[in-house]
Amino acid sequence: MSARAAGQLAFDLPLAPSFSRENFLVSPSNEAAWAQFDAWPNWPGRTLLLLGPTGAGKSHLGAIWAETARAKIVPAAALVTADLQELAQSPAILVEDADRGGVEKELFHLINLVTESGAYLAVTARLWPDSWGLQTKDLLSRLRRAPAVEIGEPDDGLVRAVLVKLFMDRQLQVEATVIEFLAARIERSLAAARSVVTLLDREALARGRAVTRPMASEVLKRLEDDH
Questions:
Q1: Does the bond joining 41 to the residue before it have cis omega, within 30 degrees of 0?
Q2: Quick one: average pLDDT of 201-217?
Q3: Contact indicator for 8, 171 with CB cutoff of 8 Å
Q4: Across the strands, what pairs with 93?
Q5: Which value, to the nearest 10 degrees, does the dihedral of the CA atoms of residues 23, 28, 34, 35 take?
Q6: Domains defined along the chain, listed by start
Q7: pTM over 0.90, yes/no
Q8: Residue-wise pLDDT tens digits, 103-121
């Protein structure tokens, strides 16, 4: 029997991740970052760095802040072609993945412009600025002086809570033993949790059965073989 509500038509459509405030689950791994961004505009400065590993929730937290602050969200790589003068006139700006963009000149120029305009600037990255390989000393100095907050790799409690939430979003009833089984074995990232839930949803739909621990084991083995 399917775990979906009786009589519901099920379509195998991917669910885009929701970056709403309601869907951000606070845990010890992210509570310091949450508190800092939630305190806006009472920041220690107008520029704030958000640092943490891939899959920790930087984009989600940034999106929540961007909605509140009416910030424009810009991938760092897009700064190369962006009109920085116009961008700096926004009330707030979120630059994502600054350590991957290779845009030292543009980022330095933007920081100077927002200093003049008074805009708020949030910058996300995986690593601290000293590990970006920056050649522009003035940029490194600016980033070193900017307040920074870290968001950690999701802890066990957060991974379990996210799995439960993702299954509920798909109206799948899953036993606690399955949640524990998955939480102990998947990569510590929110993206990994979304991926495994999507695959299990498809598998349950194809078989017309509830998600079980043996099914979860099969899907994880398949993922492992694919890598």
A1: yes
A2: 93
A3: yes
A4: 72, 121
A5: 140
A6: 23-150 (3.40.50.300), 154-226 (1.10.8.60)
A7: no
A8: 999 999 999 999 999 999 9
